[in-house]
TrEMBL record:
The keyword DNA-binding does not apply. This is Ribosyldihydronicotinamide dehydrogenase [quinone]. Homodimer. The gene is Nqo2_0. PANTHER family: NAD P H OXIDOREDUCTASE-RELATED (PTHR10204), RIBOSYLDIHYDRONICOTINAMIDE DEHYDROGENASE [QUINONE] (PTHR10204:SF33). It catalyses: 1-(beta-D-ribofuranosyl)-1,4-dihydronicotinamide + a quinone + H(+) = beta-nicotinamide D-riboside + a quinol. One of its GO terms (molecular function) is NAD(P)H dehydrogenase (quinone) activity. The lineage of its organism: Eukaryota, Metazoa, Chordata, Craniata, Vertebrata. The keyword Phosphoprotein applies. InterPro entries: Flavodoxin_fold (IPR003680), Flavoprotein-like_sf (IPR029039), NAD(P)H_dehydrogenase_qn (IPR051545). The enzyme apparently serves as a quinone reductase in connection with conjugation reactions of hydroquinones involved in detoxification pathways as well as in biosynthetic processes such as the vitamin K-dependent gamma-carboxylation of glutamate residues in prothrombin synthesis.
Length: 228
């Protein structure tokens, strides 16, 4: 069976995001996958990248440089316990699903903090090993999220511009940079503003997609996909 890590960033289990998470866990488990969930709010995950992420001595105690210090700490096995645990989950996963509501054209701070702290140099990338050469090659990722605005708002003609512009820093700047292949995002537009029937349709569509997920081809992770 495949191994899936779902990194979930919503405060309320009864939310629409909570329903999407529940469906993913149930459907993927039914397929024989081993599913792990990092429920960031429930874990009270620390989003801030600080000195506390390094155990013991610093590489340079005169001037703190988070990128350098975590890289050095990773090499000598001196990252904090919570980071080591999350890195182990990432390492074991064939597929990473990120489930969250879009905040200000971006992922919630707690999820961005997970990216900042977990995907350190040496573990997820090296400056000479990035994008197609990133250190997390052989993995798939999928961004599944809800929006406040309608699909029309996130179109080329809409006030928000094409939703793909929003996905560029997440999918390309983080996942592709680390060598992870990216599946088409799963977007539920404005679930709070539609009928119960429409919400049910959205949940059914997610269930159906998960049934054939492993047959999907990753997107062409190039600037053209985002800005054509």
């Amino acid at each position: 069976g495949k191994k899936v890590l779902i990194v979930y960033a919503h405060q309320e289990p009864k939310s629409f995001n909570g329903s999407l998470l529940k469906i993913a866990v149930e459907e993927l488990t039914k397929q024989g996958c081993s599913v792990t969930v990092s429920d960031l709010y429930a874990m009270q995950f620390e989003p801030r990248a600080t000195r506390n992420d390094i155990v013991g001595r610093l590489h340079n105690s005169e001037a703190f440089n988070y990128g350098v210090e975590t890289w050095e700490a990773y090499k000598r096995g001196a990252l904090s316990k919570d980071l080591v645990e999350e890195q182990k989950k990432v390492q074991e996963a064939d597929l990473l699903i990120f489930q969250f509501p879009l905040f200000w054209f971006n992922m919630p701070a707690i999820l961005k903090g997970w990216m900042d702290r977990v995907l350190v140099q040496g573990f997820a990338y090296d400056l000479s090993k990035a994008y197609d050469g990133g250190l997390l090659q052989g993995k798939l990722s999928l961004f599944s999220f809800t929006t406040g605005g309608s699909q029309e708002m996130y179109s080329n003609e809409g006030i928000g511009g094409d939703i793909r512009y929003v996905l560029w820093p997440m999918q390309h700047g983080i996942m592709h940079f680390c060598g992870v292949k990216v599946l088409e995002p799963h977007i539920c537009y404005a679930p709070e503003n539609v009928s119960d029937e429409k919400r049910k349709e959205m949940l059914t569509a997610w269930t159906q997609r998960l049934k054939t997920l492993w047959k999907e081809e990753p997107i062409d992770c190039s600037p053209e996909w985002y800005f054509k």
